[in-house]
Design a protein that fits this description.
alpha+beta; Beta-Lactamase; Helix Hairpins; 5-stranded antiparallel beta sheet; 9 helices; 10 strands; 21% strand
């Protein structure tokens, strides 16, 4: 019948529309999941606001920086999510001016101080209508810290190298001006210059050793090292200086201390540095103890002294190259 044919056509049309709708919803869901995956994998933080300044999206990097959760932030105005007035002003400026905003170093408390590089871009719809803004933020705190360390390192090395060079040049000029004619004075100057040149050579050797240690391509030539013998040699090397200052230098080493795999030269340098600092910063009448402990498969070597110690503010930077306070 004609009516039944029309119903069949209508049913087919409805089923076709349902399949199309289901397919469109699947495509939309797939696009949304793809976009979310991209946002979640980004190393930079992303925040998006609607035209009313309410949060519509933020990624895990922002959650980590500001210690917030996206579900709790959606629909709130920015100042309730990130309590930073300057950052809110940047968003508002971009939102109402529809002009991109770029700030290189914005300091925020999260709660520790961080430096963020901010780039805010307005979102425009048809006919230039305001739809919101999206912000890309990059945490440059570590980058700035490394730049500061590099600057200080260059300054410290320059100072350390300039000091012996200045001394050598000064004595050379004095000798050339006539002091060379006085054998006693000339010899004294030459001995000082010899000491300064050796100091300069040691500084350059230290730089080369640092470069070698930090070169990922170089590998340690590990050999069995008699640790007890190495500690005794190091103590013998510095015992005279300790005696001059009236410092009691003792060793506590078990007789059955086993050998360890390592590069003897580098282990010796570590021991010399530790013991030299102990002697340098321990006052007259103090004590220094160097010892070794066997703990299972590990050996612990320690240097304990009654010196002034390392200032608390310098502890995080104690392993920086040529750091000085």
């Amino acid at each position: 019948m004609e009516g039944e044919g029309e119903l069949d056509d209508l049913a087919w049309s409805i089923n076709f529309m349902a399949r199309e709708l289901k397919e469109n919803l699947a495509n939309i869901t797939e696009e949304r999941n793809r976009a979310r995956a991209i946002l979640n994998s980004m190393a930079d933080g992303v925040i998006a606001l609607d035209k009313y300044g309410r949060v519509i999206l933020l990624n895990p990097v922002v959650e980590s920086i500001f210690k917030v959760k996206e579900k709790e932030c959606i629909g709130n105005i920015l100042i309730k999510v990130i309590r930073n007035y300057e950052l809110e002003q940047l968003f508002n400026r971009a939102l109402y001016s529809l002009q991109p905003t770029l700030v290189n170093d914005l300091q925020v408390l999260t709660p520790e101080p961080r430096l963020l590089r901010i780039h805010i871009t307005p979102l425009k719809g048809a006919n230039g209508r305001k739809m919101g803004v999206v912000c890309l933020m990059r945490d440059v705190t570590e980058q700035k810290r490394l730049e500061q360390i590099r600057t200080e390192f260059v300054a410290n090395v320059s100072h350390e190298l300039r000091t012996p060079l200045t001394s050598i040049n000064g004595f050379l000029e004095t000798l050339l001006d006539g002091a060379i004619d006085n054998p006693k004075v000339a010899r004294n100057f030459l001995e000082i210059m010899n000491g300064e040149s050796k100091r300069l050579s040691r500084l350059i050797d230290d730089l080369l050793k640092l470069s070698s240690l930090e070169d990922k391509k170089s590998s340690l030539n590990k050999q069995p090292v008699n640790l007890k013998e190495l500690i005794c040699e190091t103590v013998k090397m510095l015992s005279a200086r300790a005696q001059e200052k009236g410092i009691a230098l003792t060793m506590v080493i078990p007789d059955d201390l086993p050998e360890v795999p390592g590069e003897r030269g580098f282990l010796e340098q570590v021991l010399i540095n530790l013991l030299d600092n102990a002697v340098k910063y321990t006052l007259s009448g103090g004590t220094i103890e160097i010892g070794a402990l066997v703990n299972g498969k590990e050996i612990k070597v320690y240097v304990a002294d009654t010196g002034i110690g390392i200032p608390e503010e310098s502890l995080p930077r104690v392993f920086e190259r040529f750091y000085s306070r």
